[in-house]
């Protein structure tokens, strides 16, 4: 017997209505010398089955996990899912076949592909009482893998908080698996967008010797074989995990003009919030021959709108995947998400204000008693998360770009405006999340860049290669970074960033 | 004046044939308060221009870097490139405009879009002697960024070895920039393949607490803020950079059935070869409901053939990009690459042998005096790189899968065959490279997996979550990993893995 752990494998033959020993199927036959006869490449998955439904009343074999079983007197219903689509397959079977089946078990089932009369779904898999399967298949339901009595994912509502305590099992739930499919779809949509715009996707390094943002909170890395000899360094010098790939992207931008990446970045941030991770994926883009920050705000708006358009495209299942899995939990939530997507496309151009205007709005709102902030909005001080969320969520009720922040709030590489007080940068703020995208025009003039680095007392040695770009055919350029997980949270109405990445990493959290 | 470093910006007006001060173009206008008037989103790039050529004899403005200038008595030729396509734009200009232009400089040029009489290219940009440009543009050539006298990338042959010494500039060369475009195209092609097959692209973690392969050679990571206090651990335990995402992919496979990733992996390998990196990108896929290693060999063959088919697709520029950039250097090389691609598709199914058969072939070849190996091929010992390369390159002259290696050569998670001596695994060997893909059916039976871990004296604590997958609806499954850079080397006929990744990392190498 090949399948099933713990010897709890039972098989049923509907026509004989009795337990029979398991006989292996040819497709899944035993592997001895595995280079034996060729087999069917991959067994059909539910995603394929729903996309290209078989002939009605034809025999169909599927595999998946049981999401729920309801046994009535004369009939039993079972939902199975294999995670390749948001749709469960409803199986209508004789009750005696279902009595031992449990939620969470993996099974193989063979039956007739029928139109469903229930209305909720178009098709169902039916095992009639007198179902005769072909000689090749002796049984119509086979348990592949069992579950323990206390299997945690019973058919009932689970809080995300509880699910985070079982990180190796939680993706089996419909809501969370739909988020992983959503993540994959959004990435594909971004790839299409950047390809269409002649961008090259590239992979800057994760191991670096420099601290791009100068913000500290780095992870240091070293080979375990040098652990006992701290003077030996694997790379010949101290090495860190990157916090942003921007400086390296600029190198590639000076060769390819339009580059982007979707790359892991790392921050050793001690604080634990629902929008920070120690390991996250960042989309960064760098564009040559631009010199106006409005080109960047507009471009990043186009990028996000492109993704939203893909999600709303009724000819694909991509948006439905997320919405339908929510509808199962709460209809209002599903409606809200679709409304948000429609709203994001409804405005021709999202709002854009300067930092100075933003401070004015915030101060006036506080003076008028409209809102009370914990941190007083002051020109020269950072916009706090509460300010960002209020601006986008309450004042503009829409994504809004804030441009031209004071020099001292931003890193050394940003282009200083003619006022000598602000830099040509922007943050795109969105309701609920706050900062989603941040970018700037970069200083491409050697002299000005060097001056600013000197003024900031920066160690220049590690960045000689970066500075040298400015003497070898330098061109005006700019770019931006967007936290990929934040985009997913925003577009998917997902509260906690830990639920949009398979294995979230943060201080004290390294469970599996 | 906005553009240009070092104040070396000169501008020419062809009609007046004299230097004039630079007047900024509206599109690239000065940024003061950058939230001013909206501007053209992104300036046109060469990729767009060649894909959708403008009307003949219309005025066209482009920006890019000078690849070469040839000044003759009555005419000058200049090639410019912006890296968005393999094609240079040839500019035909009055010699007096070209006399001060240098290879490597970034320029903006305006002229007439004309059919080219040269034959090598279809179009060219022409500045006739009497060219009158519109009022808006006072000048037809503008130097944006200059280069020093010793600019290293003069128009001549550079060895890759030399280019690796200027890691921040080398991607400006045609051959290397074509490799980055190639990399991007191949990734897009893989995404299309996996989407079509209902796989979900996902991102397993890079920071882990376990050593998946048990092979050592790990990088350890720690927050810099804990440097002085080694008992404090950011994650509460020792943490490492992943060497393979497989174990985590298996978690997701048990929820989504078909998952894949293209993810950075890390190995602190001290040895420096032309096919190893400390930081590399690995494609890994994990598939539920399969139990025959031949499903995996066949599937990975389909995957690679899909990419090759994309490269050979004449309706796109994707394959041409690489081939044409090589042709510039050596016609034979370009022909060889195309021949290889055609060859890879010519066989219906690539060869597949067992490890035992492979050892027989190697031993017989040595006994017959056909080949002499440094390492004697022996059953039970690893296949050495020389064996792999000879099998694929000399004996089969084609990619070949070797399956069913001895248990002791492979990790704990592989399914043990009925012979109890071998495991259901495979390596796909290819000419020149050796191992390109490696995979296996995984042991999905709790009891057998635990037994094997005990037999190997493995610490089980860190992998409880992995083992627990086997008691919660376990299903037969398998997967494989493929070094993304190795695939690029193989398909692109590129000798050194350092030339297919933007910033290669290996022992003692962390230049920029």
From TrEMBL, chains A, B:
GO terms for molecular function: asparagine-tRNA ligase activity; ATP binding; nucleic acid binding. This is Asparagine--tRNA ligase, mitochondrial. Belongs to the class-II aminoacyl-tRNA synthetase family. InterPro entries: Aa-tRNA-synt_II (IPR004364), aa-tRNA-synth_II (IPR006195), aa-tRNA-synth_II/BPL/LPL (IPR045864), Asn-tRNA-ligase (IPR004522), Asp/Asn-tRNA-synth_IIb (IPR002312), NA-bd_OB-fold (IPR012340), NA-bd_OB_tRNA (IPR004365). One of its GO terms (biological process) is mitochondrial asparaginyl-tRNA aminoacylation. One of its GO terms (cellular component) is mitochondrion. The keyword Oxidoreductase does not apply. Signal peptide: none annotated. Keywords: Aminoacyl-tRNA synthetase, ATP-binding, Ligase, Nucleotide-binding, Protein biosynthesis. It holds the Pfam family tRNA_anti-codon. Gene3D superfamilies: Bira Bifunctional Protein, Domain 2, Nucleic acid-binding proteins. Its EC number is 6.1.1.22. Residues 180-502 form the Aminoacyl-transfer RNA synthetases class-II family profile domain.
């Amino acid at each position: 017997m090949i399948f099933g752990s713990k010897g709890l494998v039972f098989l049923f033959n509907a026509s004989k209505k009795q337990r029979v020993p398991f006989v292996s199927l040819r497709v899944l036959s035993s592997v001895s010398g595995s280079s034996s006869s060729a087999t069917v490449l991959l067994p059909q998955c539910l995603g394929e089955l729903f996309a290209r439904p078989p002939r009605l009343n034809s025999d169909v074999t599927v595999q998946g996990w049981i999401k729920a079983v309801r046994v009535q007197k004369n009939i039993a219903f079972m939902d199975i899912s294999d995670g390749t689509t948001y749709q469960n397959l409803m199986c209508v079977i004789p009750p005696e076949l279902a009595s031992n089946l449990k939620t969470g078990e993996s099974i193989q089932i063979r039956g007739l592909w029928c139109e469903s009369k229930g209305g909720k779904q178009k098709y169902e898999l039916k095992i009639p009482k007198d179902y005769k399967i072909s000689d090749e298949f002796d049984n119509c339901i086979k348990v592949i893998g069992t579950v323990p009595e206390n299997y945690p994912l019973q058919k009932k509502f689970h809080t995300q908080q509880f699910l985070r305590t079982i990180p190796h099992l939680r993706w089996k739930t419909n809501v969370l698996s739909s988020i992983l499919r959503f993540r994959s779809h959004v990435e594909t949509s971004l790839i299409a967008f950047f390809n269409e715009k002649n961008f090259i996707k590239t992979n800057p390094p994760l191991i670096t010797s420099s601290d791009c943002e100068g913000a500290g909170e780095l992870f240091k890395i070293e080979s375990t074989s040098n652990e006992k000899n701290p003077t030996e360094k694997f790379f010949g010098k101290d090495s860190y995990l990157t916090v942003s790939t921007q400086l390296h992207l600029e190198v590639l931008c000076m060769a390819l003009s339009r580059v982007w990446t979707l790359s892991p970045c790392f921050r050793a941030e001690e604080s634990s919030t629902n929008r920070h991770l120690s390991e996250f994926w960042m989309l960064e883009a760098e564009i040559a021959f631009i010199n106006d920050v409005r080109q960047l705000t507009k471009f990043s708006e186009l990028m996000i709108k492109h993704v939203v358009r893909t999600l709303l495209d009724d000819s694909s299942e991509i948006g439905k995947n997320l919405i339908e899995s929510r509808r199962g939990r709460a209809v209002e939530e599903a409606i809200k998400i679709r409304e948000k997507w429609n709203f994001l496309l409804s405005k021709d151009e999202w709002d854009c204000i300067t930092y100075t205007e933003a401070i004015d709005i915030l101060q006036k709102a506080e003076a008028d008693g409209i809102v009370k902030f914990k941190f007083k909005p002051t020109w020269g001080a950072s916009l706090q998360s509460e300010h960002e969320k209020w601006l986008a969520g309450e004042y503009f009720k829409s994504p809004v770009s804030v441009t031209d922040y004071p020099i001292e709030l931003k890193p050394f590489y940003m282009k200083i405006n003619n006022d000598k007080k602000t830099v040509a940068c922007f943050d795109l703020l969105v309701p609920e999340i706050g900062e989603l995208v941040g970018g700037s025009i970069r200083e491409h003039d050697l002299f000005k860049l060097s001056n600013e680095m000197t003024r900031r007392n920066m160690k220049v040695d590690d960045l000689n290669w970066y500075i040298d770009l400015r003497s070898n055919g330098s061109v005006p350029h700019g770019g931006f970074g967007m936290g990929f997980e934040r985009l997913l949270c925003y577009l998917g109405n997902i509260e906690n960033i830990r639920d949009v990445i398979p294995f979230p990493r943060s201080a004290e959290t390294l469970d599996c």
